[in-house]
Design brief:
The chain contains 4 helices and 8 strands; from the N terminus they run H-E-E-E-E-E-H-E-E-E-H-H. It has 189 residues and is an alpha+beta fold. The protein has one domain: Sporulation-specific cell division protein SsgB (Transcriptional Co-activator pc4, Chain A), CATH 2.30.31. A hairpin with a 2-residue loop joins strand 7 and strand 8. The longest helix is centred in the last third of the chain and has 18 residues. The protein is globular.
Length: 189
């Protein structure tokens, strides 16, 4: 069940970001619309040089418009060990897709935050809904803003899988060898 979206309409959120993008980018995204089911987390171990992701989760979300209507959106969230601070989120709606890079630690904090003290102070804010089975994600950009409601469980499962691979606080240990390899490659080029 979706959280009570009526109380979010007065926030004036979601009046542009996804809606305007749907009009501007009507391409193959329609073929990627969700089937209403969250898929299990997939963990893939790959060499660091490849662009594939180590953890991927597909989550069904709802874009909450300013009039409290909802539009289904699928989010594919992914994580790479080689980039342990970042979660890539590809939001796909009926007519478009939009990619955001989100701080992994921000998402972890957001799963514990409340609406009166959301995690994040910039373009991305995350907090738990009054119904603890849901979380809310607010995105703001030059195109507008969007408020997305999501079941919390798939995000928690995804974040737990990322922390199994790279615990929060140990990201720089992972990056040290990557940075050293990059510097060595640049010096020998």
């Amino acid at each position: 069940m979706l959280p009570n979206v009526g109380r979010y309409s007065e926030l004036g959120l979601s009046q542009g970001l996804m809606g305007e993008l749907w009009d501007e980018y009507p391409h193959e995204a329609a073929s990627r619309c969700h089937d209403g089911i969250s898929t299990p987390v997939r963990i893939r171990r790959t060499p660091v040089t490849q662009q594939s992701f180590d953890v991927v989760e597909v989550v069904t979300m709802q874009l909450i418009s300013s009039d409290a209507s909802v539009i289904p959106v699928t989010a594919e969230i992914s994580f790479r060990i080689a980039d342990p601070y970042t979660v890539r989120a590809v939001f796909t709606g009926p007519h478009t897709m939009s990619t955001w890079l989100l701080g992994r630690e921000l998402l972890v904090q957001g799963m514990l935050a409340r609406s009166d003290a959301p995690a994040g102070t910039g373009d991305v804010q995350v907090w738990r809904d009054e119904d603890p089975d849901y979380a809310l994600l607010s995105l703001s950009g030059v195109e507008g803003s969007a408020l997305l409601a999501t079941p919390a469980e798939p995000f928690e499962r995804f974040l737990a899988a990322t922390q199994t691979l790279v615990p929060i606080g140990s990201e720089s240990d992972r990056m040290e060898s990557e940075i050293s390899a990059l510097i060595a490659a640049l010096l020998t080029a």
